[in-house]
Amino acid sequence: MTAASQPYALRTSNDQDLARRMARGDARALEELMRIYNRRLFRTARAILRDDAAAEDTLQEAYLRAYSSIGQFRGEAQLSTWLVRIVANEALARRRKEARRAEVLPIVPGAAQEDSMDQSDGPQRKAERAEIRRLLEEKIDALPDGYRAVFVLRALEELSVEETAAALDIPAATVRTRFFRARSQLREALSREVDLAFDDAFGFAGERCDRIVARVMAIVAAGTAA
User: In 74-169, which ranges are E strands?
Assistant: First the structure.
C-alpha cells in the first residue's frame, strides 16, 4: 500500500514530524506530504474550480506556499486542515481572477470543457462503473458553489463537520445544512448509484500524482540551487 492510499488515521502521527522537517528545508518531507495529501487537496481545488488543469495549477501553487510558510504552522489545527485552507484560498482567488477576466474577454463556447475521466484507468475498469463515476462527477460539478466543496470534503474525503468547517472557514451548522442539501440533490439525480463511485471520483493517482510531485520538487530544487 502506498502512502497516498493509506487511511488518514494511519498517518496523523507523522504530521508534526513532517512540519518540523519541512521547516528545516527538508524537500523530501515536502514530497512525502504531497504523496499523502495529493488526492484530498486536488479534490478540494477541483470542487471549487470545476476544471482539472486549473485545479492542478492551484495545487502546485498551494504546495509551494505551504512549503515557504510552514513555519507559521503551530499545530493548533491538523496539518490537513491547514493545507486544505491554503488550497481553498488559492482556488477561490483563482476563481475570482477568472471571473474578472471573463467580464472583459469573451468566452469561446466549449473551450473550458474537458474530459474529466482519469486516463490512467486500466482496461479492467468496468464500463458501467466508469459511467457511474462520470455521472457522479458531472452532478457534483452542477452543485451550487457553496455546496460543492462541503460535499467533496465530507463525502469523498470523509472529513468531520468540524474539520470541514475549519478548513473552509464557515460555521459547523452551515456545513451540516449544505452537506444535507447537496447529498439530497445528488441522490435525487443518481439514486442508489451514487455511493458506488465515491472512491473513484476525481482520482488523483499514478501519472497525475507523479506529475504534480515532480513539478513542485523541480521548483523547490531550483530555488535551493539558487
Answer: none
Taking only the tens place, the pLDDT of each residue in 72-118 is 887 777 898 999 999 999 999 888 887 766 554 443 333 333 444 44
Q: What is the pTM of this model?
A: 0.64
| pLDDT score, position 177 | 94
Of 157, 161, 162, nearest in space to 179 by CA:
161
Q: What is the pLDDT of residues 158-185, one digit of tens each?
A: 889 998 998 898 999 999 999 999 988 8
- Closest C-alpha to 208, from 9, 53, 101, 22: 53
Burial class (CB in 10 A: 0-12, 13-18, 19+), 8: middle
8 touches 80 (CB < 8 A): yes
Give me the CATH code for the 12-104+126-225 domain, please.
1.10.1740.10
pLDDT above 70: residue 36: yes
> In this structure, how many other beta carbons lie within 10 angstroms of the beta carbon of residue 144?
10
Cα Rg, the chain, nearest whole Å: 18
Determine the residue type at 107. I
Which candidate, 201, 97, 213, 92, places its Cα nearest to that of 151? 201
Domain range list for the chain: 12-104+126-225
